[in-house]
Amino acid sequence: QVQLVESGGGLVQAGESLRLSCAASGSIVSINTMGWYRQAPGKQRELVADITSGAYTNYADSVKGRFAISRDNAKNTVYLQMNSLKPEDTAVYYCNALISSPRGRSRYWGQGTQVTVSS
Questions:
Q1: Which end of the chain has fewer CB atoms < 10 Å from its terminal CB, N or C?
Q2: pLDDT confidence of 110, banded at 50, 70, 90?
Q3: What's the per-residue H, E or C state across the chain?
Q4: Are strands 10-13 and 113-118 parallel, antiparallel or unpaired?
Q5: What pLDDT sits at residue 60?
Q6: Mean per-residue pLDDT over the chain, rounded
């Protein structure tokens, strides 16, 4: 059984920062790409940023220069440092990872963490 557990969401004012964490646990053989998605009310879920096992990163245009994704492979954890937050960043943020286990390779999702940015 593989699980992704997120933490770090909350309520902040515009211009402030938050750091999200997501730890993978369970019968993990290896982890390929890890990433963060978000879904605002009435909108589709969208990619925020992802990072490969080799630390290559990819960002949505809307967060470039403000957000930074990183990972600690020894801890099976991915982070999202969010700076200069804007009200339009308000959403539920979901962790995602492509994980190989003894049962095969699958994409897993975390339960989501709410980020609310007030103006």
A1: N
A2: very high
A3: CEEEEEECCEEEECCCCEEEEEEEEECCCEEEEEEEEEECCCCCCEEEEEECCCCCEEECCCCCCCEEEEEEHHHCEEEEEECCCCHHHCEEEEEEEEEEECCEEEEEECCCEEEEEEC
A4: parallel
A5: 98
A6: 97
